[in-house]
Specification:
alpha+beta, Beta-galactosidase, Chain A, domain 5, 10 helices, eight-stranded antiparallel sheet, 38 strands, Immunoglobulin-like
Length: 640
């Protein structure tokens, strides 16, 4: 049960069975409203409304409304009225979040990470989560989820302070959005839900369903409604060829993929050229000399081979050496201090296979820049014949507010600016498939078919970001797969050489991604793979959704479960640098037992039914086991 409580001064606290949010207070422009005192102006059995007045509000006021939906669910909404200037942000601050073992710091785009953070006494903070957060109790099971239901207008944040009982500031980034003249407008947040749930990942799924229901455009991929259930499976040039591509090299790989896909009857339907065919970021209608015929004939050959032809683009990126910037320097977002707002500087040896030293952000509020971007997508879709779009670095269009950047047309929030461009992209590409990479995860619902949910795959276990961080990020976003979009865990590495992974590490990474059950892409030459790697690739090409039954725990062993009928799969991965032994009751994995087990890696099934799974794993090693009420007559060829 979740219960609002009132202090002697009418300040709101919220008590769940094992978690407490204490002492709500209004916040404006990042600071608590000094001198604000709560006054209850309406109250009945299911609703309470507060009004706050403070010197900083002038003659205006701050409002807060709480509505009880059920014994386990509350809705909050807050607003300000009568401000003479549009604010940067406003929200509420709880003075302390008590009795929690961890909170979820959820990033807002593909690469900014997600993790459960333990609020230790010496933790310095702050930690900011976007769109939602989740609280895990110090005692007891289950969780409390706090999250907004709509994400198409505002960036919304949850910032935890320092210490073991951190303060929590929940904010709507208003970004000085234009309002009615005269200061009488009511500036209102989206609805905020707070609910208890007996599970962890299932609680996050419940929040995702609320987001799906509230979205102005229905999700384009939903396992639960049957919409867009066909998985995105195919080949992408980046993770093998990188930018060193040409028409001849692409055609060579196309023939190899076509041959093996037909021979092995692999359900691969996408063939995508990644970055490397345009001379500079921003010059999206220009093509390098390595593609002498241009892109239209090449995409036609990909289609003739039986694939949906795909291309890569970073629509908000503009290089300082691009023709676009040289001819239209006013088409980029300006810094408040003057000059173009520089998001990325590459002044040293690495220039990302381009000439540009600086990268700016396309100002899509500029009518001519917006029209240019529209022409790019219209040309790619209707003249070149592109049917699969991978749009990258999408968060650049939503990264800055008016405190950092100046747009040609002020008065819109960063998310409104982003959505306006993204909605135009969807209009121009029609029913083509769209993968958002480096993408705002929650603002993109209803527009993209799929979203990258973690960092890029590397060629070694430890690079700038270790594999363990990849597992953590993907696990904390997996809940939205099949509800808000297809999840893209990134490309699957299959080749035998030109990487620093052991066989066990490569297999662990591949199985982890395959169990996610969303986008399945590889960049490797399929006609050069040995039979065991092709067998691994075939195994993964089955659409589905996995569960992380121990999400939120601190164990470095990652467990994934895909339930099927009658066969289910369990993947147990040791992400640590030490050997481990683990045993799991089938019931703890959400499976009915006892079952017959088949160890895919060992190629052997047990002669009798078991009620638990036991494994011993070397560092970075994993085990894939299939469970069935009937004995296995042969090795399973695909995941359930």
């Amino acid at each position: 049960m979740i219960e609002p409580t009132l202090a002697a001064d009418n300040a709101l606290s919220i008590a769940a069975d094992f978690v407490m949010l204490r002492g709500a207070h209004p916040v404006l422009n990042g600071a608590p409203l000094a001198g604000a005192r709560p006054e209850i102006v309406a109250r009945d059995a299911t609703r309470i409304e507060w009004r706050y007045r403070a010197p900083a509000l002038g003659g205006g006021e701050f409002g807060l409304e709480l509505t009880r939906a059920s014994r386990a669910r509350l809705w909050l909404r807050y607003w300000v009225v009568g401000l003479t200037e549009a604010p940067d942000d406003f929200g509420i601050r709880f003075n302390a979040v008590e009795r929690i073992s961890a909170f979820l710091r959820q990033g807002y785009h593909s690469w900014d990470g997600s993790a459960y953070v333990e609020p230790t006494p010496d933790r310095t903070g702050p930690d900011t989560s976007y769109a939602m957060t989740q609280l895990l109790p110090r005692a007891g099971a289950g969780s409390v989820v706090i999250g907004f239901e709509r994400h198409d207008r505002f960036q919304q944040t949850f910032t935890f302070g320092a210490g073991q009982a951190p303060a929590l500031i929940i904010q709507t980034l208003w970004d000085r959005k234009a309002t009615e003249p005269g200061g009488g407008a009511r500036l209102e947040s989206e609805r905020l839900v707070i609910f208890e749930h007996p599970g962890v990942e299932e609680a996050l799924r419940a929040w995702a369903r609320l987001v799906a229901d509230a979205a102005p455009l229905a999700p384009r991929c939903s396992v639960e409604t049957g919409r867009g259930r066909n998985g995105i499976i195919g080949w992408c040039s980046w993770y093998n060829l990188y930018a060193a591509i040409s028409e001849d090299l692409i055609l060579e790989h196309l023939r190899g993929v076509e041959k093996i896909a037909r021979q092995a009857q692999l359900p691969m339907r996408v063939f995508q050229i990644d970055d490397g065919f345009t001379p500079e970021m921003g010059d999206w209608l220009d093509v390098k000399p390595q593609f002498p015929r241009g892109m239209k004939p090449l995409l036609a050959e990909m289609r003739a081979a039986g694939f949906a032809p795909g291309l890569w683009i970073a629509p908000f990126m503009v290089g300082n050496r691009s023709r676009l910037y040289r001819e239209h320097s006013d088409w980029v977002v300006q810094a408040v201090a003057g000059g173009p707002l520089v998001h990325w500087r590459l002044y040293a040896e690495f220039r990302w296979h381009k000439r540009s030293e600086e990268y700016y952000i396309l100002d899509t509020t500029h009518p001519d820049a917006f029209a240019y971007l529209r022409r790019v997508f219209r040309t790619w879709r209707h003249e070149w014949g592109c049917e699969y779009f991978k749009t990258d670095f999408m968060f650049w269009g939503a990264e800055y507010g008016p405190e950092r950047g100046r747009w040609r047309q002020p008065g819109m929030t960063r998310i409104e600016i982003w959505r306006r461009a993204a909605e135009m992209i969807r209009t121009e590409i029609g029913d083509a498939t769209w993968l958002g990479c480096g993408c705002p995860l929650w603002a993109s619902v209803g527009l993209v078919d799929a979203a990258r949910i973690g960092r890029d795959l590397g060629v070694e276990w430890r690079e700038d970001v270790a594999a363990r961080a990849l597992f953590r990020d993907v696990a904390a976003r997996n809940f939205a797969n099949g509800i808000l979009w297809q999840a893209d865990p990134d490309c699957i590495l299959l080749r035998q050489r030109y990487h620093h992974l052991s066989d066990a590490e490569l297999t662990s990474l591949a199985l982890f991604a395959g169990m996610i059950g969303g986008v399945m892409m590889t960049s490797d030459a399929l006609d050069e793979l040995p039979p065991d790697r092709l067998r691994l690739w075939r195994l993964l090409l089955a659409a589905g959704v996995c569960r992380f039954p121990f999400l939120g725990g601190a164990d470095p062993v990652v467990v994934q479960v895909r339930k099927g009928e009658p066969v289910s799969a369990v993947h147990i991965l040791n992400a640590s640098d030490s050997p481990v032994e683990r045993a799991y009751a089938l019931s703890a994995l959400g499976l009915e037992g006892p079952c017959y087990l088949y160890d895919w890696g060992k190629g052997a099934g047990g002669p009798s039914r078991k009620a638990e799974i036991s494994v011993a794993l070397a560092p970075h090693e994993s085990a894939l086991l299939f469970a069935s009420p009937r004995p296995f007559e042969a090795a399973p060829a695909r995941l359930p």
